Amino acid sequence: MEHKFIPYQQKELTADEQLKASADFYEQMDQRRSVREFSDKPVDIRVIENIIKTASTAPSGAHKQPWTFCVVSSKELKAKIRAAAEEEEKVNYSGRMSERWLEDLEPFGTNWEKPFIDIAPYIIIVFKRAYELIDGEKRNNYYVGESVGIACGMLIAAIHNAGLCTLTHTPSPMNFLAKVLNRPDNERAFLLMPVGYPETNTQVPDIKRKELDEIMVVYK
Q1: 118 within domain boundaries
Q2: pTM of the prediction?
Q3: Are 179 and 87 in contact (CB under 8 A)?
């Protein structure tokens, strides 16, 4: 069976243009921070659509694109999600998490309360699709976790590029999200992300990223 191929096209940059483009993008992304204090200022849904379209350009195993991005703006649904998330987080902070884990979280000032779920204009819940059902037949997806993880990374970059902020939230266990949103059996919640503007005078922890020589090894 023959499959169609098309020419690959990409704008070619000079060496100087590559260096500038890569440096400019790094400087932009280095300003990205996880934000927990959100404004309820509205965001145009078309911006969210473009952000998700960007995430959907991510590579995936056998091009199965095993993801669903659920965008929630309903106050009623957000309230239900917050209540269920906080119920799980209360248990986490009171026993599921180890003492070392809690100590590592102290610099960030986190606790079981998640008001950003209610306040942010949108919540994006990313689901990974474990398999597909096509004409009643189960079809495998491949490298599902890796594929969805890459898409989420691109989603975060697209959110920051649009002048918005987000937070990666993983209330564990996350099964309640599929129930609240009535998702099909082949979908598993992967990540919950509030999206919007930061609240006025928002503070973030004073942290530093690892230096390049701590994260890159070059073999010549």
Answers
A1: yes
A2: 0.94
A3: no
Q: Judge whether residue 1 has pLDDT over 80.
A: no
Domain with 142, as residue range(s), is 35-199
Pair type for strands 137-140 and 67-72: unpaired
Going by the DSSP 8-state scheme, the letter that residue 167 receives in this structure is -
Pure H helices in the chain:
15-30, 45-55, 75-91, 99-105, 116-119, 144-161, 175-180, 212-215
Q: What is the mean pLDDT of residues 90-118?
A: 89
CA distance linking residue 212 with residue 207, whole number of Å: 16
Q: Write the CATH number for 114.
A: 3.40.109.10
Q: Residue 94: its pLDDT value, please? A: 87
The upper half-sphere exposure of residue 126, i.e. CA atoms within 13 Å in the direction of its Cβ, equals 30
Helices 144-161 and 15-30 sit at what angle, rounded to 10 degrees?
90
Q: Are 78 and 124 in contact (CB under 8 A)?
A: no
Pairing of strands 67-72, 122-129: antiparallel
- Number of domains the chain is built from: 1
Cα–Cα distance for residue pair 70/7, rounded to 1 Å? 33
> Per residue in 183-210, pLDDT tens?
999 999 999 999 999 999 999 999 899 9
Whether residue 184 contacts residue 138, with contact meaning beta carbons closer than 8 Å, is answered with no
What is the model's pLDDT at position 166?
Answer: 98
Inside any domain, residue 8? no
